[in-house]
Amino acid sequence: ALVPCRRWVFPGLHQRLAAASLSAAQPARLYAAAAKNAKRGSQKAKQEETKKKKGTTRRPLMSKPVDDVYLTWYYKRPSYNVEEAVGMLKKFQELDFTYPKQHVYINVFLDMALQKKKKVDQLASTVLLPYRFTDEMNKVLVFTENEKEAEIARENGAAVVGGVELIKWILEDEIQVDFYVAVPEIVPKLIPLRGKLRRKYPSARRNSLGRDIPKMLQLFREGLEYTVEDERLIKTRIARVSM
């Protein structure tokens, strides 16, 4: 092999060496670019596959099974009117020896569609059912500063009766009841309790503010409270199987 010395001259040596280094670096760059393009291609393919999965529709459900053993998700869920459903509940009780005092629950889906798009606040109310199915009575507090009204409240089963002196005890959680009712005259003095009681704060809209103390006490002592969840769903119990 020839060993170059200082006095030897190779024309164009520097240009050749530079070209050689460029040609050696070029494949690495091409590989990196190809890998990047491949990555983009795989991401695009995944996105398209996800779109296809979202767009896939299940086949229409069949109406009624011909056998008593079947896959439920292949068939439409049966629906019954109220009379049929109640009759089936009683029949199930006879067949599987269900406890006769077991509660019956109901799910009510409300149509809360509005003309303008806005959220419907959760709401709660109390209803007095024609037939009671529990022996428990709710504890009700009556706000009044009239001694005659206080006596009427006690006679009709109020758990606690009093005026503004009760505010401190309620704020300190010394007094805890299920519902609060009041007569109109005392309401301006109950403002400090608004944040504490929230939806249980006496209100004419919820029928917990008025002058007919016996009627209010009957509603909230014996009534069933229900709440609208997720803007349109009511889940509550309405009876016992034996009723």
TrEMBL record:
Official protein name in the record: Large ribosomal subunit protein uL1m
Region (Disordered): 36-59
Regions annotated as coiled coil: none
GO cellular component: mitochondrial inner membrane; ribonucleoprotein complex; ribosome
Pfam families per record: Ribosomal_L1
Organism: Chauna torquata
Family: Belongs to the universal ribosomal protein uL1 family.
Key words, A-Z: Mitochondrion, Ribonucleoprotein, Ribosomal protein, Transit peptide
Transit peptide is among the record's keywords: yes
SUPFAM superfamilies associated with the record: Ribosomal protein L1
Keyword Transport in record: no
Location in the cell: Mitochondrion
